[in-house]
């Protein structure tokens, strides 16, 4: 659409104001803190890149970072796939579809509440439901929460299980795929699967892209799951990076160090996001290009 | 700036004080009642109560301290004093308010613990310590008597296994308790605190190794469940562990002030009893006791006198003491104890434990002992030890080097 | 075989085929419903369990995965609602809505405007501004908390709902902005062109054409903001100090003290009640997820 | 074998509107059937029901010897050009056309060959890499057409496939479709084609038969010439032909044993053959119909059997012909004349218009049936 | 005052494709201008540039006495029918039509009156409560048309507004648009109309003038008759008229002082007038053009000046006329004849086809210009 330059600016003015007034200060403050020894109680002293140096020399930092990476790589694709799959099914004209949609959104409403923590224990404790089911198949009981090698999976599963918001977004996107394209695909002899892959999927790529970025960002910043279920343990095997940041900021009062950690994470997410945006033109189909 | 000080400026000469605490239902109700009483007795002073659950409270107080918006009177954790008031200037120096606060009601040793650089940063609300509590029902079922020595505990372990089953243990220790148990052992053997006056680890590597071996031995002998066994239930507070609830774990080494929830958690009518400090390792006594929490006054308060009045009222006014009861544990204030004893409210596990704690307060506790970073270190080391990632010697090494580093940083 | 017989035969065959098809369809949809229901139960179980747990004793809560309590006791709800504070949950619910409703409204408005600006206009330095928009998503907000607190303190906004609501009026929720942008970019411009010819200025194009078409997306925004705000605990906790102004999320955790005895059935009973608004809102909102209609007005 | 048979097919839309009121139609294997009818008469609906895109609410549809009521579109052996194109916006023109073949697992090289060939015929070779957004309306329509043409189904369904093309292109596309039809027949795999169009030239030239629909009902199914020359009812008479047949109120009168038709502007003697057919209607009102080309505007004309006098209101010059709109006794007529043969007709003046009554039609007012067949 | 002037207007699409190569055009206030041209020649693009929907990459567009390059569409005083309808899917037909009026704050009762009136003319009164989804293609198109008609802008832009309507409706819509044009003129608020169509009848009957576009360039701007009779170049000759002009390779030859044109199948003597015009091209190759109606298929015909012999390949019957496709010396010709006058033409047989050479055109092969004007 044609438009005068200032018109667009006008529309984003609220955001620009918000950016300057609400976002910029905390942002730069935290960046500044990352170069200080700020401990909240006394005024910060400039320490150069000491925090960053310390960071890279800390074992826990690397461990936590490694776990976070694997967590991201496990959960993001799984959650997206699951959300998309369910959204796809719930997009059919089914009876009681409203009920099912609500049911599937349920876990996400529960969020990080007590109930979830307790439930996860029941599911994955040594005497929990999962092991009970496995026992039916003759599998020995597994220490899902006690074994450092498995604990991360249970946390990941929680995240996947709370797939409600990407699901809703996918649903909204699926609704926007013109019916006529499905008709064309039916005439073209495409099976359901093929139609999904070749027509539906490309049509919702803008939103898929969005969900991907969001899940990526959120997975990198995941705090609640491990916090309520494993507390980072056992043996720090679920000690995701945000927990590390949190501990340093609010338990150890090492705000300077914590800020440095945050900015490190910021850069890491930024790199991934940039890569995603670079890949965008190869697979994201926009109806409207600029 | 709408800090705590400004808010106090009520209209018509009325003084408004903000008072914050965290806690559970019982504490909220009792405190609110006490406040009403205070307001009745002190017309012209309005109290704005700011209270909530434990979760997030520290973040909240931290933000307020950083933002200079803290309430006039605060209930704080003892070790927070050393965070918010490293140099003693973080809170109002109560020594200037002795006209309104009677410090004679406190054990001077306790007052020492709230005094930083000669400035009194708070008054102790209560004392708490680690005490052994035994599940009598479980012990009876195992055919064991409540132990008083470690040998008896070892024996109980055998009886638990033979009479009840392999997943029964006479005691449960989580990571932190496991560390404290090692310290308990070392203290009994060597009679010195873990951290000395110079903020350095007081034990040699060899000594520590011995302490850790002791813990490993407890695991080996089936006295306590292994880290992995415990972990299988998830990161669960000890009182919520099904094994505890069902009486599969026979005892806990717990703060006396927290015993209520342990007892309440027990399924059916299992009975919990207070145990003695276990002996049989060395000639020294060992115990871990500390001030549970303190009341402090905001250093920027506009109304120090009124704040002091409130403080004093809460800890020593007979009616208030009665209302508050043990909602903050057994009080540290001698006058208060007297009142409560008179009323006969002081009974039960908490009080029994507390009596034991006050009987022997250990060899002194460094204010940094419970620092979050150090606590985290203890847990990590014990966990790695328990999971066999490191041996006792490595654990000693790791603990010493890292703890000393942290202590140095903290004391800076 | 004469023509009639042939036709009859064909008709019979056809009938059989159709029956088979119908049966297969039946099985298909039966299976679909079975799977949906089964997985759905898995999803719902926590809620069911929660419901049951609200009647249980502490010990039963932590040891039994079954949802049926050994006895029903409504005291959890009754006592929970009364709370140990000076106020009942009614106050806390009202407070919550005082935050949630304005916040949702200003969010939808500011987010839509900003997204519109980004998606449909030429703006000098747009790429750069968009990068900043995305960047604001990436920094873990843990470390922003303290500076934000200091900032809102300097605005004199503490102990009010302003820190929780006002920033949303300025589209600080970049998440939503990005989301709406993506949806807009998927909508053909043809309709907007028609609207400009019909004499709409750009804001009218947005409100009369784009927003109705974007309804599912905008409803999602409102829905998420509603729920996240309902659940948000740390924000109100830090900014609000007067108990009288607490929202439900804080009130829920009022009685939970790590070292004290907690009546879990009360906590859970209240959690269940606190879920109700979100559930109702979701259930109502999703009805608007009707078929997309965009394309039916455009040929080609 | 892909005859398409509709048996009392009905369609009621979810909003309650009944679009199709029981259609019976047999389309033979390999036949080229054209659907015409006014806008909204359910041509597309019928086509979409044959395709299986629209649930039918009554009756049966048979393709080959199978009732396809329950058969999925992809299993019906059809290709279709949608009235609204329904191109895949995210695919290039090439992929839009190749998609159907890819779905049927046609080898890549064959796909390529067929797509390129079709593109050549459709004159969109240069556009194969473009997406629909980057194409003009007619170009999109050609891609939509190409998408069907590359396939070899039993039944082709075309829904106004050439409506957005210029005359020249339209002719060549038309020829292309006819060639395809012939070719498939020659190859022994005749394809049944159902073709919706509003273009009378297309309808007349392409169809083996034409189905005239009106408001969800069939009016007549016949060959093009029969439709034109022997419309069975008033609707078909008025609908087929552009400009359409002059249809005016008339009355059959008998004078002296001879039968006349009285219409505004004159009383015309009916030829014997016509007179016989309407004698039973003497004294009754009827609709009188005469095609514009059967009116000859000339002062003297030996071919005509009767005339009306009318004043010319508009003369439309079409290059090769002229349309003369004239008014006789308050009724509007249109005549189609060759400008070479009929010169100097001026607007506003009165002329005699001779009627070729051997070609006239008369319709019963009630049944609307053609009495003169 | 709403004349529309295009001054060297250019358009290059973002993908680099140059759709318009400098168009100069003056459309007078109140003029009815028709755009025709092959699919993809930039008719829509030009219209959209006038509307302000497409940035122009070169030149200027003036509406009235204002350069509107920087003026927003809504401020240009235009109404438009989009080729793809662009109906608002969430609004009923009524609201789709009323929307523009609502935007200009027209009083409610006037809106209602105008919408209902338009709906009556468009024969969509019953559909006013339906959403686009529930309408047929033609019905949607009429709503799109209605949306423009209810308004009173300075300039109307129609992009193939009748393409999906049946012949009858199309005629009445055409008349309706013309009436509107007249009415506005009579009211003293003449509206300039720019009308894109592929329908030659529409183009010829509606346009005051016609602009023929090809590949983003103007080929000729002229009155309908002039375009038909005096095409300035090969493109216009071939494009205007359906079926189109026969265009074959030829050569001008001189024999005994007389000028002939040699085409496949015969050497034809040129009438004096034509001969003069092409004498300079004697010995050169040219394109020879003759409209189908200027070929008379008859064994003996007094009017013809020359003939070719060809074998008939196809006879297309159109009801009122016949198209005869015949082959002469390997070249295809088409003749348009009156079936009454020329009887018994059979496929496969040879006939003499007489050419009315007074009507012939000859074009320079290089410049493609018409030599015979
Ligand atoms: N968005 C675009 N990007 C690139 N090229 C385009 C775009 N839109 C149109 N074109 C090209 O520009 C040329 C002119 O397109 P336009 O739509 O103006 O044609 P048209 O004359 O209206 O044709 P039709 O009669 O088929 O509608 C076409 O060749 C088309 O392929
Ligand atoms: N989805 C629908 N819901 C309700 N009515 C509909 C729907 N689709 C079409 N109709 C109605 O059904 C009738 C037949 O529509 P159809 O599209 O078959 O007409 P058509 O003959 O193809 O017309 P056109 O030539 O205008 O494309 C029309 O009156 C239309 O309004
Ligand atoms: Mg149709
Ligand atoms: Mg076009």
Automatic annotation (TrEMBL), chain A:
Entries under Pfam families matching the protein: BPD_transp_1
GO cellular component: plasma membrane
Domain (ABC transmembrane type-1) ranges: 65-276
Compartment(s) where it occurs, according to its Swiss-Prot or TrEMBL record: Cell membrane
Keyword vocabulary terms for this entry: Cell membrane, Membrane, Transmembrane, Transmembrane helix, Transport
Transmembrane segments: 12-35, 65-90, 102-123, 150-174, 195-214, 226-245, 257-277
Signal peptide, first to last residue: none
Similarity annotation: Belongs to the binding-protein-dependent transport system permease family.
Name of the protein in question: Sugar ABC transporter permease
Automatic annotation (TrEMBL), chain C:
Presence of keyword Transport: yes
Pfam families: BPD_transp_1
Domain ABC transmembrane type-1: 93-285
One BP term from GO: transmembrane transport
Any one cellular-component term (Gene Ontology): plasma membrane
SUPFAM superfamilies, per the entry: MetI-like
Listed name of the protein: Carbohydrate ABC transporter permease
InterPro entries: MetI-like (IPR000515), MetI-like_sf (IPR035906)
Location of this chain's protein in the cell: Cell membrane
Source domain of life: Bacteria
Automatic annotation (TrEMBL), chains D, E:
Signal peptide (from-to): none
Protein name: sn-glycerol-3-phosphate ABC transporter ATP-binding protein UgpC
Domain ABC transporter, chain residue ranges per copy: 4-240
Listed GO CC annotations: ATP-binding cassette (ABC) transporter complex, substrate-binding subunit-containing; maltose transport complex
Keyword terms: ATP-binding, Cell inner membrane, Cell membrane, Membrane, Nucleotide-binding, Transport
Cross-referenced Gene3D superfamilies: 2.40.50.100, Nucleic acid-binding proteins, P-loop containing nucleotide triphosphate hydrolases
Chain segments annotated as coiled-coil in the UniProt record: none
Database matches in InterPro entries: AAA+_ATPase, ABC_transporter-like_ATP-bd, ABC_transporter-like_CS, ABC_transpr_MalK-like, ABC_transpr_MalK/UgpC-like, Mo/tungstate-bd_C_term_dom, NA-bd_OB-fold, OB_MalK-like
GO molecular function: ABC-type maltose transporter activity; ATP binding; ATP hydrolysis activity
């Amino acid at each position: 659409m044609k438009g005068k330059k200032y018109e667009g600016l006008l529309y984003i003015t609220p955001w620009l104001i918000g950016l300057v007034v609400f976002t910029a200060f905390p942002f730069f403050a935290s960046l500044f803190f990352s170069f200080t020894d700020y401990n909240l109680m006394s005024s910060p002293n400039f320490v150069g890149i000491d925090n960053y140096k310390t960071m890279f020399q800390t074992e826990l930092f690397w461990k936590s970072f490694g776990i976070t990476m694997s967590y991201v790589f496990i959960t993001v694709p799984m959650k997206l796939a699951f959300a998309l799959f369910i959204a796809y099914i719930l997009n059919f004209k089914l009876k009681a579809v409203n009920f099912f949609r609500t049911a599937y959104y349920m876990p996400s409403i529960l969020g990080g509440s007590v109930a979830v923590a307790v439930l996860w224990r029941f599911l994955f404790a040594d005497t929990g439901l999962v092991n009970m089911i496995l026992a039916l198949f003759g599998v020995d009981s597994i220490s899902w929460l006690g074994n450092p090698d498995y604990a991360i999976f249970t946390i990941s599963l929680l995240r996947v299980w709370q797939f409600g918001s990407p699901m809703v977004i996918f649903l909204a996107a699926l609704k926007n795929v013109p019916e006529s394209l499905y008709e064309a695909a039916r005439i073209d002899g495409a099976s359901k699967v093929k139609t999904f892959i070749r027509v539906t999927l490309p049509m919702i790529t803008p939103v898929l892209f969005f969900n991907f970025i969001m899940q990526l960002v959120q997975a990198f910043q995941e705090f609640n799951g491990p916090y309520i279920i494993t507390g980072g343990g056992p043996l720090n095997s679920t000690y995701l990076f945000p927990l590390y940041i949190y501990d340093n900021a609010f338990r150890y009062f090492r705000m300077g160090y914590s800020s440095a950690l945050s900015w490190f994470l910021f850069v890491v997410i930024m790199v991934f996001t940039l890569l995603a945006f670079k890949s965008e033109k190869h697979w994201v189909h926009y109806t409207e290009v600029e | 700036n709408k800090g705590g000080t400004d808010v106090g400026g009520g209209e018509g000469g009325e003084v408004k004080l903000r008072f914050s605490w965290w806690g559970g239902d019982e504490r909220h109700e009792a405190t609110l009642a006490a406040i009403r009483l205070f307001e009745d007795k002190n017309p012209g002073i309005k109290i704005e109560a700011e209270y909530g659950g434990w979760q997030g409270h520290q973040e909240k107080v931290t933000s307020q301290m950083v933002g200079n918006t803290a309430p006039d009177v605060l209930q704080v954790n003892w070790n927070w004093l050393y965070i918010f008031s490293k140099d003693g200037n973080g809170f109002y120096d109560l020594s200037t308010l002795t006209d309104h606060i009677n410090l004679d009601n406190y054990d001077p040793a306790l007052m020492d613990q709230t005094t930083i650089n000669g400035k009194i940063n708070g008054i102790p609300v209560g004392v708490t310590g680690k005490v052994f509590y035994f599940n009598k029902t479980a012990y009876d079922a195992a055919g064991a008597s409540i132990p008083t020595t470690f040998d008896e505990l070892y024996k109980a372990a055998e009886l638990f296994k033979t009479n009840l089953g392999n997943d029964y243990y006479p005691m449960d220790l989580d990571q932190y308790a496991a560390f404290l148990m090692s310290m308990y052992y070392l203290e009994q053997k060597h009679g010195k605190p873990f951290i000395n006056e110079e903020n350095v680890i007081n034990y040699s590597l060899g000594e520590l190794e011995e302490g850790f071996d002791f813990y490993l031995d407890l695991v080996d002998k089936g006295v306590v469940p292994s880290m992995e066994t415990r972990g299988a239930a998830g990161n669960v507070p000890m009182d919520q562990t099904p094994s505890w609830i069902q009486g599969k774990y026979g005892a806990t080494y717990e703060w006396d002030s927290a015993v209520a929830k342990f007892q309440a958690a027990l399924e059916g009518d299992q009975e919990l009893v207070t145990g003695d400090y276990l002996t049989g390792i060395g000639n020294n006594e060992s115990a871990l006791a500390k001030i549970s929490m303190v009341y402090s006054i905001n250093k920027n308060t506009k109304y120090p006198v009124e704040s002091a009045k409130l403080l004093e009222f809460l800890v020593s006014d007979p009616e208030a003491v009665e209302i508050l009861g043990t909602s903050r544990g057994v009080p540290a204030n001698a006058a208060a104890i007297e009142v409560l004893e008179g009323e006969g409210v002081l009974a039960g596990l908490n009080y029994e434990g507390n009596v034991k704690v006050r009987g022997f307060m250990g060899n002194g506790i460094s204010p940094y002992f419970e620092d979050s970073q150090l606590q985290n270190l203890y847990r990590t080391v014990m966990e790695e030890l328990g999971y066999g990632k490191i041996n006792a010697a490595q654990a000693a090494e790791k603990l010493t080097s890292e703890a000393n580093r942290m202590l140095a940083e903290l004391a800076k | 075989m004469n023509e009639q017989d042939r036709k009859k035969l064909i008709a019979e065959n056809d009938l059989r085929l159709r029956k088979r098809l119908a049966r297969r369809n039946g099985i298909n949809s039966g299976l679909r419903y079975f799977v949906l229901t089964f997985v759905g139960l898995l999803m719902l179980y926590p809620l069911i369990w929660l419901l049951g747990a609200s009647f249980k004793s502490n010990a039963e809560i932590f040891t039994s995965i079954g949802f049926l309590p050994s006895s029903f006791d409504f005291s959890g709800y009754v006592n929970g609602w009364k709370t140990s504070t000076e106020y009942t949950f009614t106050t806390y619910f009202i407070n919550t809505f005082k935050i949630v409703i304005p916040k949702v409204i200003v969010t939808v408005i500011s987010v839509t405007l900003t997204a519109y600006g980004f998606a449909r206009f030429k703006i000098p330095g747009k790429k750069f501004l968009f990068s900043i928009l995305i960047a604001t998503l990436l920094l873990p907000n843990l470390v922003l908390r303290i500076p934000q607190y200091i900032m809102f303190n300097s605005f004199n906004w503490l102990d009010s709902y302003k820190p929780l609501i006002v920033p949303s009026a300025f589209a600080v929720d970049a998440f939503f902005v990005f989301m709406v942008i993506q949806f807009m970019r998927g909508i053909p411009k043809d309709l907007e062109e028609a609207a400009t010819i019909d004499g709409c200025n750009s804001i009218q194009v947005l409100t009369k054409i784009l927003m109705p078409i974007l309804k599912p997306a905008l409803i999602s925004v409102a829905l998420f903001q509603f729920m996240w705000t309902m659940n948000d605990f740390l924000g109100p906790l830090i900014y609000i100090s007067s108990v009288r102004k607490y929202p439900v999320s804080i009130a829920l955790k009022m009685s939970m003290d790590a070292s004290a005895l907690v009546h879990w059935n009360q906590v859970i009973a209240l959690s269940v009640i606190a879920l109700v608004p979100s559930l109702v809102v979701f259930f109502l909102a999703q009805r608007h997820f009707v078929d997309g209609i965009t394309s039916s007005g455009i040929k080609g | 074998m892909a005859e398409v048979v509709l048996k009392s097919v009905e369609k009621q839309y979810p909003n309650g509107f009944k679009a199709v009121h029981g259609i019976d139609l047999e389309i033979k294997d390999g036949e080229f059937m054209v659907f015409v009818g006014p806008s909204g008469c359910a041509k597309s609906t019928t086509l979409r029901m044959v395709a299986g895109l629209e649930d039918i609410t009554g009756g049966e549809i048979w393709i080959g010897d199978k009732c396809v009521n329950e058969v999925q579109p992809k299993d019906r052996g059809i290709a279709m050009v949608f009235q609204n194109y329904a191109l895949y916006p995210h695919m290039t023109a090439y992929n839009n056309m190749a998609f159907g073949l890819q779905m049927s697992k046609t080898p890549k090289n064959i796909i390529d060959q067929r797509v390129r060939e079709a593109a050549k015929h459709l004159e969109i070779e240069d556009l194969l890499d473009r997406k629909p957004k980057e194409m003009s309306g007619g170009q999109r329509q050609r891609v939509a057409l190409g998408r069907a043409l590359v396939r070899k189904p039993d039944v082709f369904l075309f829904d106004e496939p050439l409506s957005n093309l210029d005359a020249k292109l339209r002719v060549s596309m038309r020829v292309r479709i006819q060639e395809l039809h012939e070719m498939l027949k020659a190859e022994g795999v005749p394809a049944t084609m159902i073709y919706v169009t509003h273009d009378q030239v297309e309808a007349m030239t392409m169809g083996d038969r034409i189905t005239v629909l009106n408001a969800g009902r069939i009016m007549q199914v016949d060959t093009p010439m029969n439709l034109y020359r022997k419309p069975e009812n008033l609707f078909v008479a008025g609908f087929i032909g552009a400009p359409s047949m002059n249809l005016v109120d008339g009355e059959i009168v008998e004078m002296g044993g001879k039968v006349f038709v009285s219409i505004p502007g004159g009383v015309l003697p009916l030829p014997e053959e016509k007179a016989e057919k309407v004698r039973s209607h003497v004294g009754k009102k009827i609709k009188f119909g005469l095609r514009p080309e059967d009116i000859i505007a000339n002062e003297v004309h030996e071919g005509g059997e009767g005339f009306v006098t009318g004043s010319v209101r508009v003369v439309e010059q079409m290059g090769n012909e002229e349309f003369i709109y004239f008014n006789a006794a308050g009724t509007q007529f249109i005549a189609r004349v060759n400008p070479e043969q009929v010169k100097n007709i001026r607007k506003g003046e009165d002329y005699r218009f001779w009627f070729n009554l051997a070609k006239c039609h008369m319709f019963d007012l009630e049944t609307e049936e053609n009495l003169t067949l």
